User: Which sequence fits this backbone?
């Protein structure tokens, strides 16, 4: 490992403070130390990205698609290095890292397929009507264009799929935006391996230097410098509510404010309805337990809140209690997350009226143990702090009357997901609750659990604040491409001055809207 | 006239300070005085909007389309009252007010047609793949949903098309968002006439109370209260850069930040290339003059900056100078705008190296006279304040070498439009400049002028900051619907729990994306 930043096609020099990863399972400090970039190196990365933008945005969609696919192949050639270093840096098992790498390359290829298809551009053509009264209509054509260099912050809990070449990087590169990645201090080695793969792909594909850089260093220093830089036009972030809000505030205070897409904090309410609880409480408890403890609960879609109607809860709770008692603690991603988990769960149980159902196993240092809390709806409604996310394998079960559960749902902040378990009869009776949940969340899950976010065209992984900074967007799936684009219109342009996507002959054979009607190629 | 706010289906009571319109042509203070709403009345309007949202958003698209069309018809029945009061309040001529009313009702009907068509919803269906490895794929469907109650600020320069029932109101109501309009103090009477038409339509169509309210009062007090209210989910604004930025900052500082769509400040650069100048300089000067002086220059698309290549400018300038010398002053919208115009033009001419070409007619009080300034590119590049908008019939002509013009274009802030005049040869030689302008602007106009914004599917009336707060959006045309929406996904939902737009049977016959492919109904 070189353990320095990637400044376009060059590497940084070792002259800053060194930062080491720590193996969360053993507490061992790992070599090498990664050098923070100098202010000049940060500036160079930005200037290279700004210089690359005019060339990169003008490449054909096919060329960008080829670049995305080459990144995917280069990552695949590094899979052994990724999981070897990754398991040590993150405590995640080999299977998870292999699976996450598969997701990452699949995501890159899905965006490449989106580029091939072309309909995402929302290309629109309206022909001139010189005889229209009272005013002639001009020829007017529009499509989406990239906004400019984007900064992507790596996520601690997705060292592959939401880090160096993860979702935000894939969507930004696909749309024509250069990317500067701010590496996460928890997995700098994985970041180097993946960044090297991206750079190899960029060089093989003849991309302009600066289309990709990766910077080490702290979020407060390097990260904030990037977010405030006038050449940066958008930000992607996955992490804590405090961290995301700090970026939002900095971006909004710029002379030229820019969008920040921060995925921050969600407790993902789950509601189980009476008839289905009567039918299969033990299976529901098993499913809930699996969703709660998967990946040691370190998912933004972890089910952190469960509503159970009073009188229907006993069989479910009996089964869940037994599962939790026997549940094994797991290594958490890093010491900071582990401590925050302890603090959050201690804060929850400190509320009067909150009962704790804990694992009987003692967690080793660095580990978090699954835990479930219980309270009644009155307690929940009186204590808004009970809605705070406990990042890890913890959830709060709230029991109450149907009216209380509806009121509690209505009191929630914005969520990534909301899940309902019910029979046909249950769901028919829950229309009012459903209406509330749909206004609160980005994705409504029926008879399932919120974990598991399919990377696809219809996925919405984004919801009203504070689950994300901007509920109009998704960070997973091809709709994420919209976040780094803006529409541009050409009025009365000669054919040869138009992008291929808007030419009458439709040389790229893409679906477009023509004179108000959607048209196949 | 009742001269009080519309709080849902009730009217406010006269208990606040009264505000009077002033006839800008005569300086006469007009009766009646319009009452500022009390804090309780503002709160009532918001609570009614919040209460209306769940019902309004669940109405069928056809019902909302019918509501839009009924608003249009009700406005048409009021046309005589509109132009009579409007000419006195704004100084705009009858023909303009009639034309703007036609545009306003056309815009409402265009959004109704968009609702009928349904493809704007971006409905997506992906069928389950239970056998997919390594993980089964769930059934996943998504479409756009409204964000919630929206506040719309009326624009002084578009008393109809960007005021009470203007573009922002039309797009918000179309997407399912209740609207609270903050009236502009320049044309409170027109606001009352149009609001009454909207309310009649809402009652005829059985809309939930609160789907529309209109509040008088000041922007700093009533406007800011609305923007900071937790039940408000988005803001539409057209006005000054300072006013728009104040709203952006307030919205970004909320506990739950919300999007502000502010259309603020643009100087709309025009570039004329050598060959076309040689061919038809007098006609270009005539066209430029018309665009500059139309509506006394009070358009956001007014051509406030013109680049002329050194050596090609003389015939153009000769003709333009003669037109400007003879140009008649015109009544401006209000005394504040008139004073600001004087201040801005005085500030421009105070720069060393800036020459003034003025009308020889003396403006009466309340009038603004067309004026053109000239400087060389070096002066322009050394004085960033020369890029400030002069709202009114004023423009700055910059001459320089091609390299200087390119550098000057590259130094510009974000713009609503950029226009190029050139022959085929000219345009072929200007590729580098075109690339720069496309990054700066929302709409590129070829061999035309920026004024005249067609209301259509392909129009982009939005550009990078500070032309608007959010260049990812347009305030004119059907793409404006996207500003008040967010995507929502349904996972494994039973058919009867899905919106009609996402049901397998496609009962609304709308275009959708199915398993990654765009499909006609």
Assistant:
């Amino acid at each position: 490992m070189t353990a320095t930043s990637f400044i376009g096609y060059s590497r940084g020099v070792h002259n800053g403070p060194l930062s080491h990863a720590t193996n969360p399972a053993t507490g061992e400090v790992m070599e090498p130390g990664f050098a923070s970039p100098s202010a000049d190196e940060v500036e160079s990365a930005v200037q290279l990205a700004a210089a690359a933008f005019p060339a990169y945005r003008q490449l054909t969609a096919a060329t960008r698609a080829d670049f995305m696919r080459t990144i995917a192949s280069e990552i695949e050639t590094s899979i052994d290095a990724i999981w070897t270093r990754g398991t040590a840096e993150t405590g995640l098992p080999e299977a998870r890292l292999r699976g996450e790498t598969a997701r990452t390359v699949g995501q890159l290829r899905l965006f490449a397929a989106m580029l091939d298809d072309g309909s995402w551009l929302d290309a629109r053509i309206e022909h001139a009507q010189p005889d229209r009264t009272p005013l002639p209509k001009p020829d007017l054509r529009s499509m989406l264009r990239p906004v400019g260099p984007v900064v992507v912050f790596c996520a601690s809990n997705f060292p592959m799929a939401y880090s160096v070449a993860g979702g935000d990087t894939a969507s930004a590169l696909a749309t024509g935006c250069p990317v500067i990645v701010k590496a996460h201090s928890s997995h700098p080695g994985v970041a180097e391996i993946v960044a090297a793969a991206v750079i190899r792909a960029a060089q093989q594909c003849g991309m302009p230097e600066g289309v990709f850089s990766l910077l080490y260093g702290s979020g407060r220093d390097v990260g904030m410098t990037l977010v405030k830089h006038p050449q940066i036009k958008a930000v992607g972030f996955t992490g804590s509510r405090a961290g995301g809000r700090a970026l939002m505030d900095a971006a909004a205070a710029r002379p030229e404010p820019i969008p920040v897409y921060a995925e921050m904090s969600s407790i993902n309410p789950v509601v189980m309805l009476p008839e289905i609880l009567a039918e299969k409480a033990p299976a529901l408890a098993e499913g809930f337990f699996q969703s709660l403890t998967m990946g040691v609960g370190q998912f933004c879609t972890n089910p952190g809140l469960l509503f159970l109607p009073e009188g229907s809860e006993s069989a479910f709770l009996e089964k869940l209690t037994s599962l939790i008692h026997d549940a094994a603690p797991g290594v958490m991603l890093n010491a900071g997350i582990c401590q925050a988990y302890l603090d959050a769960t201690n804060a929850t149980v400190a509320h009067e009226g909150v009962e704790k159902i804990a694992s009987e196993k003692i967690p080793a240092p660095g580990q978090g143990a699954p835990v479930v809390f219980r309270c009644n709806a009155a307690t929940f409604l009186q204590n808004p702090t009970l809605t705070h996310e406990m990042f890890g394998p913890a959830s709060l079960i709230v029991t109450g009357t149907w009216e209380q559960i509806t009121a509690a749902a209505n009191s929630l902040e914005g969520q990534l997901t909301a899940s309902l378990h019910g029979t046909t009869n249950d769901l028919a009776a829950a229309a009012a609750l459903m209406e509330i949940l749909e206004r609160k969340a980005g994705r409504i899950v029926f008879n399932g659990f919120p974990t598991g976010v399919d990377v696809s065209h219809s996925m919405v992984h984004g919801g009203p604040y504070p689950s994300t900074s901007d509920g109009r967007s998704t960070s997973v799936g091809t709709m994420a491409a919209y976040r780094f684009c803006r529409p541009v219109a050409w009025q009365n342009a000669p054919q040869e001055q138009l992008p291929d996507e808007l030419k009458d002959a439709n040389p790229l054979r893409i679906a477009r809207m023509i004179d108000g009607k959607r048209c196949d190629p």
Q: What stands out?
A: Residues 94-117 of chain B form the longest helix (24 residues).
